[in-house]
Specification:
single chain; four-stranded antiparallel beta sheet; alpha/beta; 38% helix
C-alpha cells in the first residue's frame, strides 16, 4: 500500500503556464509580477501595501524593524510559535518573552499584558493550524504593535473577522504546505502608511538579493485568483474528516464555534493514547501523520506544565492529518476510517 502523502501543493496547469510565461518573457527576477502579487495579497488581508520577500525570515525581520524596535528590546511570542521566530529575533538582537496560550491557542491576554507591563514592545502573534481569534478588540488593548502571522490561518473566518484584520503588520509564508504556495517566499504588509513606507525602504535596501522573484510570484498570483475554490475544497474535506472524528475518541484542536470557518490548512487532532501508538496505527493504513507542533518553540517545553499549562496537551499529543485539495476520494475514505478509530 502506497503511503498517502502528508502534503501536496495545489498546482494545476494554470500554475505551470504562469511560470512558463514568465520564462518566455525572460523576466524571472523581482519585477512586475512580484508587485502584482503583493497588491493582490494585500487586498485579501485588508492592507495597503508591503513587500514580497524570498524567505520568511526576511519578512519577519522587516516586520520587526518596520515598527521601530531597537536592539535589546523584548517581543512577546506564544509557546506555539514556530522556532524560526527565534532566528529572526536573534539576528536583530531582540529578546523573546514566551507566554502560554488561551483556550483557542493564541497568546494568553493576561500573560501578554504582564509582559507589556514588564517592558515588552511588541507582540508577534501566531495563528496556529488554521485557527482564528474570536475577538479582535481584546488583542488591540495591549498598547504595543502587533505583528500578525497568517501563514497558517490565511483564508480562515470567524464571524465577521478574517485573518489579517488584527495586525499593525501582517506576515505570511508561502511554503509548499501552504494554502497558497509560491515554492518559498513570504509577504510583509500593513494597513498603516507610515509602516508601509518603512517596509518599502527596508526591502529596497537589499533589493534583488532578498525580494521575491517573478518566477515565484507568478505561482502566487494564479493561486490567489483561485483561492475561494481552494478553500471550498479544503473545507469540504475538513467537514468529512470532522464527522468521522466525532465518531471516535480523538479531540479536535480547532474551535467548534458555529461562526468559525477554517481554511483547511490542517486537520489537527489531540489523541488520548501515546502519540507514537497513534502514528503507527495510522501508518498501518498508509496514512502519514505528523506531530503538529514539532517545529514550534514549545517542542522543548512539553513537560513544563508549570509554565505552560494550557499548551502542554497539544504540544505533546496533537497530530496533524493530510488535508489538501488533491487528495483522492479513496484517500479521504481511508483517512476517515483512521479518524473513526484513533484514540
Amino acid at each position: 500500500m502506497a503511503a498517502i502523502r502528508f502534503t501536496k501543493p495545489t498546482l494545476t496547469r494554470k500554475d505551470m503556464d504562469a511560470v512558463l510565461q514568465t520564462m518566455v518573457d525572460e523576466k524571472i527576477g523581482p519585477g512586475d509580477r512580484r508587485r502584482e502579487f503583493i497588491k493582490l495579497f494585500s487586498s485579501y488581508v485588508s492592507a495597503r501595501d508591503g513587500a514580497a520577500m524570498r524567505t520568511f525570515v526576511d519578512a519577519i525581520e522587516i516586520a520587526l524593524r518596520s515598527i521601530g524596535l531597537a536592539e535589546g528590546e523584548s517581543v512577546v511570542v506564544s509557546i506555539y510559535s514556530p522556532d524560526v521566530y527565534e532566528t529572526a529575533l536573534k539576528a536583530l538582537g531582540l529578546k523573546e518573552i514566551i507566554v502560554d496560550v488561551d483556550k483557542l491557542g493564541f497568546p494568553d491576554p493576561e500573560a501578554v499584558k504582564n509582559a507589556v507591563d514588564a517592558g515588552a514592545k511588541a507582540v508577534l502573534f501566531f495563528e496556529p493550524l488554521g485557527q482564528l481569534y474570536d475577538d479582535v478588540e481584546r488583542y488591540r488593548e495591549f498598547g504595543v504593535p502587533v505583528i500578525e502571522d497568517v501563514t497558517e490561518s490565511f483564508g480562515s473566518v470567524f464571524g465577521e473577522t478574517k485573518a489579517g484584520m488584527l495586525g499593525d503588520v501582517v506576515v505570511c509564508a508561502f511554503e509548499e504546505e501552504g494554502v497558497v504556495s509560491t515554492a518559498g517566499g513570504a509577504a510583509v504588509v500593513s494597513g498603516k502608511e507610515e509602516i508601509v513606507e518603512n517596509i518599502r525602504k527596508l526591502s529596497e535596501r537589499t533589493g534583488r538579493y532578498t525580494e521575491l522573484a517573478d518566477l515565484n510570484a507568478a505561482l502566487g498570483i494564479v493561486q490567489l485568483n483561485k483561492l475561494e475554490a481552494t478553500l471550498a475544497r479544503r473545507n469540504e474535506i475538513f467537514r468529512a474528516f470532522l464527522q468521522s472524528l466525532n465518531q471516535g475518541e480523538g479531540k479536535m484542536f480547532l474551535s467548534g464555534n458555529i461562526d468559525f470557518r477554517t481554511n483547511g490548512y490542517a486537520f489537527p487532532v489531540i489523541v488520548n493514547s501515546r502519540t507514537q501508538e497513534a502514528v503507527e496505527f495510522a501508518r498501518k493504513y498508509g496514512v502519514t501523520v505528523r506531530k503538529s507542533f514539532s517545529g514550534a518553540i514549545g517542542a522543548r517545553y512539553q513537560d513544563r506544565i508549570d509554565r505552560y499549562p494550557n499548551a502542554v496537551a497539544a504540544l505533546s499529543r496533537c497530530l496533524s492529518f493530510p488535508i489538501y485539495p488533491f487528495l483522492k476520494s479513496v484517500d479521504v475514505d481511508t483517512i476517515q476510517k483512521v479518524l473513526r478509530h484513533i484514540g
